[in-house]
Amino acid sequence: MSATWRKWMLVGVVGLVGCRTTGTAVRETPEWPKQEVQFDPVMVTGDLELASLNDEELFAGGTSAFAAKDFARAARYFGRLTDFYPQSKHRGEALYNAGLAHERLEQWEEAYLRFSELADAEKGTGDALDAAFRMAETQYHLERYAEAAKVLATIAERQDIPVGKRLEARVQQGVCELESGQKEKAEKTLRKAIATYEDLEDKDEIEDYFPAQAHFFIGEIYRQHYDAVKLDPAKGSDALANDLNYKAELLLSAQGNYLRAIRVGNGHWATAAGSQIGALYENLYEHLVNSPAPAELDAEEAKVYREELRKKVRVLLTKSINIYERTLEAAERIGSQNAFVDKTRKSLEKMKALLLADTDPAPEKARPAQSKPHS
What we know:
- The protein is mainly alpha-helical.
- Among the domains are: about 1-15 and about 35-120, Alpha Horseshoe (Serine Threonine Protein Phosphatase 5, Tetratricopeptide repeat); about 220-360, no CATH class.
- Helix content is about 65%, strand content about 0%.
- The protein contains 13 helices and 2 strands.
- The longest helix is centred in the C-terminal third of the chain and has 36 residues, at about 300-335.
């Protein structure tokens, strides 16, 4: 049942009868004979403003509201058309537009219901194919990742649609698989999408957004592997060194895939990838700084350990700052502005402050006030 209207069939049967009891203290009143009143069925639509409009008027009103970004009103008009005029020539387009309007409002369940009625992942073209993509996206937002991946896999296997559509479906399938926790399956799917892209003789026929997204999310897979490695000094210096080396290898693997995303040349994913590379170095810095020396080291060995650690930390800070600065320069050059840019700008300021603090450490005891330098 549509969220924008409700139908009630009211059959009013009212029995005006006297009270019946089993006792003798109260008896029926003969002056009130039994009566039955029958009313005609009544339909209550819940949207009386639109009740008098025909399908042409509803479609025009919905189109106008959508153009004005009044998505709530657009959803009402298009929804009314699809629910009350099943034979209208505008119904298919109204279904799709109703889904889009709900999507803009982040009403994912309502959007899913509209798109699902129109979608045909297996054989659809035009709006039916586009609705299948949009239905999968609503499932993604509803955290129905397995269902979304299944729809997208169906599209990706079709040979009767352009390669760009198949590539888009394959990449989004991989993202859904990753969200559902299937890292290995997701990586295989994303690499298959990249292979499809690399095999193209004319890569200009494909929008660069999706191959860049595929590289980015393979980077995300290795970042998750990196996050899973915990540095525990209690395990001893040898084990700590091995874990640290393995963590660094995973960082480099993630970085390599992020760099490939940058090289594709899509502004959005290039900015996102640069931000994530900087964040990796920032994260490793925080791990090293906050990790105590292995318990097996004596005081002198612990001092040497911290000095060596400080050198590595400065390298990580410098790398992180360099990557953040280059990311912001690229974002400014291409006019990119998104959440990753804001995150990068804040992280850059944080890293600069940390490097400054490390360069000019606080003195152990207060120094006497110095005279002003000569001009």
